[in-house]
Amino acid sequence: MVAKKGADRKHDSAAELLGDWRAAERDTAAARTAASVATLAVAAAAAAEDAAAEAESAASSAMEAATRAKSAAEHAKRAAGHAAEAAQMAETTAQGDRARADQAVTTAERVEQTARDRFHGAEAKGFPKD
Question: From CA 2, how far away is CA 94, in angstroms rounded?
Answer without folding.
Answer: 108
